[in-house]
Design goal:
- By secondary structure, this protein is an alpha+beta fold.
- It folds into 2 domains: about 280 residues, 2-methylcitrate dehydratase PrpD; about 140 residues, 2-methylcitrate dehydratase PrpD (60s Ribosomal Protein L30, Chain: A, 2-Layer Sandwich), CATH 3.30.1330.120.
- Helix content is about 45%, strand content about 10%.
- It contains 20 helices and 9 strands.
- The strands form 3 sheets. A 4-stranded mixed sheet has the order 7-6-8-9. A two-stranded antiparallel sheet has the order 1-5. Strands 3-4 form a two-stranded antiparallel ribbon.
- The radius of gyration is 22 Å and the shape is globular.
- The relative contact order is 0.15.
Length: about 500
């Protein structure tokens, strides 16, 4: 691994492109490093994971809308959409748009938490869609996905975005571009321009995750994947980009991050070093913001100690700064206590999630979020008794340099009306690589079956699982069939609806 010092350059300094972070990202993207077997296997697991949550969300309104928009852009020999026949294909950027929206909608796929946080699995839809349109094989998909994860994760380790109220997709875009550059085996200069373009277009605020959180939360990664494909396309045609996008006097560092005195150390593998960052990431067992995963597991374990939840006087959750300010009371966001809040807001409210998990003893991606469920008087009463507290030790462990020592959970303190107290702590979610039950291939396929086993034909289920298991040896024709197909009667609004601009018919 090699450390790259990144800072804003004064006007009187002279640098070449090879000194820019965008160039170093591009160099690694096109270096064709070997892919280790455990990395390839984890890519397969995440392809399964993405398909599971995408198909589970197939008929939710944001997914239907994204699908209708994509279907307004048909392309023979393009890329197919989740759940639909492979005979129906659209332009790759629109397939990435629709498929990534489906993946993100339930907030139920993989995550990485560091100086910043994101969902690196959002990189996979543009890789697969572009491979399907350009005739790339499964080995290319694995390499592209692994490199996209690598760049994405290393940027999240190095550059904090949320502290400046910038959304985490600013790191998703250069990761996706790097993966696409690897997929298409493009020259360094082409990928360099595309990285600069993508970063320039990728910065937005975190208002999408505060207040009334809407369906835009699902669309942000689909916008990113689509934008990455378009940036690559423009750069392949010889179009340039604002540069240096990280180091320039009016760059994203200078005006959107730490300012003109900001300095970062970004670590990237050497050109011959295999990408392994995907192994540091982790998926979700429960459909909720990742920092609630350990909290749900903790609630399900401790609830057996409490005979009567109405006798709870106070619940304190001691946790990290990140968890406290993003999904807890430290956000100072009244919407996180609102029974009429959107599903997207509720899955970013640890207080709601903790109350429901304590009451129900399980978590479900649909029934745990219904308006009726959120409006129960006893739930509201319990919800209001929950407070989170930032704890210096949990914050320290959140950022621990040793992955084995990092902690994303907290300590739960439940005080009863008679003064008795129930306490329990959990470092990481059960499904985490360091958790009680770290997930492997059988867990990912079980999640697939749990979410959509009752709607997919058994033969199609088996075909898809086998195809993903053999991903490294699939030819281009098989890659084009990498999207699982649901019965036609299941997928709603599977054609342009006539509602939006793209469907307008005079």
């Amino acid at each position: 691994m090699k450390n790259h010092h990144v800072r804003v350059w004064p006007a009187d300094e002279t640098h070449g492109r090879e000194d820019e972070l965008a160039w170093k990202i591009a160099e690694y993207a096109v270096s064709r490093p070997s892919i280790d077997d455990d990395v390839a296997n984890m890519v397969r697991c995440r392809v399964i994971d993405n398909a599971s949550v995408a198909l589970a969300a197939i008929n939710r309104r944001p997914v239907r809308s994204a699908r209708a928009m994509a279907l307004a852009h048909p392309r023979p020999h393009g890329a197919p959409l989740f759940g639909m026949s492979p005979d129906i294909t659209v332009h790759a950027e629109w397939a990435a748009w629709a498929n990534a929206t489906a993946v993100r909608e339930l907030d139920f796929h993989d995550t990485f938490l560091a100086t910043d946080f994101s969902h690196p699995g959002d990189n996979i839809p543009p890789m697969i869609a572009t491979a399907q349109q350009t005739g790339k094989d499964g080995a290319a998909v694995i390499r592209a996905s692994a490199i996209a994860y690598e760049v994405h994760v290393q940027l999240m380790k190095a550059m904090g975005l949320h502290v400046h109220k910038k959304d985490h997709v600013a790191h998703l875009l250069p990761g996706a571009v790097a993966g696409l550059g690897a997929l298409l085996e493009l020259p360094t200069e082409v990928v360099y321009h595309a990285v600069n373009q993508a970063v320039h277009l990728g910065f937005s605020t975190r208002q999408s995750r505060k207040g009334e959180i809407t369906s835009w939360k699902a669309y942000v990664p689909s916008y990113s994947g689509k934008t990455a494909i378009e940036a690559i396309d423009r750069a392949m045609r010889g179009e340039g980009a604002p540069n240096p996008i990280y180091e320039g006097a009016d760059s994203v560092i200078a005006w959107m991050l730490d300012g003109t005195d900001g300095e970062y150390t970004v670590t990237l593998p050497d050109p011959t070093e295999p990408p392994r960052a995907i192994l540091e990431t982790y998926t979700k067992e429960h459909s909720a913001e990742y920092q609630a995963q350990a909290i749900i597991d903790l609630a399900l374990e401790i609830r057996g100690q409490i005979n009567d939840l109405t006798r709870v006087k106070k619940i304190n959750l001691h946790t990290s700064h990140h968890t406290h300010v993003v999904i807890d009371t430290g956000s100072n966001d009244p919407q996180k206590f609102a029974p009429n809040a959107s599903r997207e807001t509720l899955d970013h409210s640890a207080m709601y999630i903790l109350a429901v998990a304590l009451e129900d003893g399980h978590w479900h991606h649909e029934t745990s979020y219904t308006p009726a469920r959120a409006a129960r008087p006893e739930t509201i009463a319990l919800w209001q008794k929950i407070e989170t507290r930032e704890d210096a030790e949990w914050e320290k462990r959140y950022h621990h340099p040793d992955p084995a020592q990092r902690a994303f959970g907290g300590r739960l303190e439940i005080i009863m009306d008679d003064g008795t107290t129930h306490e329990a702590a959990k470092d990481v979610a059960n499904a985490h690589p360091n958790g009680a039950t770290p997930w492997t291939w059988p867990d990912y396929t079980a999640k697939f079956d749990r979410l959509i086993g009752d709607v997919i034909d058994v033969s199609e289920r088996d075909r898809f699982i086998e195809a993903v298991a053999d991903l490294g040896t699939l030819d281009a024709d098989d890659v084009r069939l990498l999207n699982p197909i649901l019965p036609r009667s299941i997928v709603q609004d599977s054609k342009a609806t006539g509602v939006g601009i793209f469907d307008w018919d005079n």
